[in-house]
């Protein structure tokens, strides 16, 4: 299937590792050009070097409104326009309770709100404007550890925000969707750390998905690429759950 991504221009936040980097790889393989960001300059530099000539990126703190909005402008200028915005950055819950909630709000939720706002005009100028916000199946879980509750709540808010924005931006020709991955394993990621630090819990986690394993960044990236692409042109306001059957509910 031709996804129609050849020549498209995409911004991917959190694009230096894991799911974000794999999304960048997938879009480039389909003929797109990408701009990526992350907090760590060295990680962005390494990712851009690997991705090649159709990639550009630099470090930015997406929780800083002015810095992030300025970066979005530079990215759109570098790409010569914009067809796809993918909000992928997520906050790591390693602070005290009050700080966790504030940081999750700024990073998980508001970075997407600010990114969509900064991208809106350029996407409206595109023939195939598309936004994909990366949520999580934590958005539907009520039995989360205390340190992950802010993360789950903000990921739920993202799905609601994507649905609201889909209605508003449809008149401008821009589609808006969210993708909610379940547990995804990649080297250096959260589940890799859990495998080392808490092997018994890791083995238990493997039993939760109906498929009996964790997902891969490649599996998420392929879904995101399709949803973002012109091949999925009638999809907007949807949340695509991608969890290998982890949640034992029907996704209506």
Question: What does this protein structure show overall?
Answer:
The protein contains 8 helices and 7 strands. With 252 residues, it is α/β, with parallel strands linked by helices. It has a single domain (9-185, 216-242), classed as NAD(P)-binding Rossmann-like Domain (Rossmann fold, 3-Layer(aba) Sandwich). It has a 7-stranded parallel sheet, with helices on both faces. The longest helix is centred in the middle third of the chain and has 29 residues, at 97-125.
CATH superfamily: NAD(P)-binding Rossmann-like Domain
How would a textbook summarize the main sheet?
A: 7 strands, parallel
CATH topology: Rossmann fold
Shape: globular
Q: Please, what is the average pLDDT?
A: 94
What is the number of beta strands? 7
Rounded to the nearest angstrom, the radius of gyration is 17 Å
Given this structure, which CATH class is correct?
Answer: Alpha Beta
Unreliable runs: none
Number of helices: 8
What sequence of helices (H) and strands (E) makes up the elements?
A: EHEHEHEHEHEHHHE
Major sheet: order of its strands? 3-2-1-4-5-6-7
Instruction: Give the count of structural domains.
Output: 1
Secondary-structure-based class equals: alpha/beta
Q: Beta fraction of the residues?
A: 5-15%
Q: Write the CATH architecture name.
A: 3-Layer(aba) Sandwich
